[in-house]
# Entry
Amino acid sequence: MVAEKEDSSPPKLPAERPQQQQQPLGQARRAKQQVTDGFTVKAMMKNTVVEIEKLDYHHYLPLFFDGLCEMTFPYEFFARQGIHDMLEHGGNKILPVIPQLIIPIKNALNLRNRQVICITLKVLQHLVVSADMVGEALVPYYRQILPILNIFKNVNALDDWMSQACTHKHSLWDSVNSGDGIDYSQQKRENIGDLIQETLEAFERYGGEDAYINIKYMVPTYQSCLLN
# Structure
């Protein structure tokens, strides 16, 4: 038998596949996402990006502020979340809408409901810092906004006294008595007196040189946070 000649040639390598050009992760994700307007059917679809800053602020922002009067879930949640989202992304679209927000704010405060007032105060604190000149634009409307705040400003002292009077059989030192039940508001940052003080201080800081004198006129017990 004749021995087969050993093949000394190098083994053939498999043909290289053409490399696929990969997109950066961020671009790939954006390619799958669809940009759409808010409050449309498409906005509810998966992988959809809603551009809040492109909404009609003259229409939607006052609409959400009207929802401050809502006290039923999920309506009050939608209104509150919608306001904060629009204030976060609104920029220079917020200032021209200020006159349309005053009546909804006043209506919410005039309900004299503790939950509604606390939510509205937090919204006001966000509003004054949401864009340039917004705090100053609110000054002419203090006469419509501040009367209710003046009524409730000193509620902390009264509630503390009532809380101590209600500790006959139970340890309630950390609670606040709302008159019709125990309101554990201090633990949830929903103490009206504290929120009013924070809101007035925000008004003074961002309201310009005329803010303090106008606050003092409507809330005589207020002391400047800038002069201390």
Observations:
- Strands lie at 34-36, 48-50, 176-177, 182-183.
- The chain is about 50% helix and 5% strand.
- The CA atoms of residues 23 and 29 lie 9 Å apart.
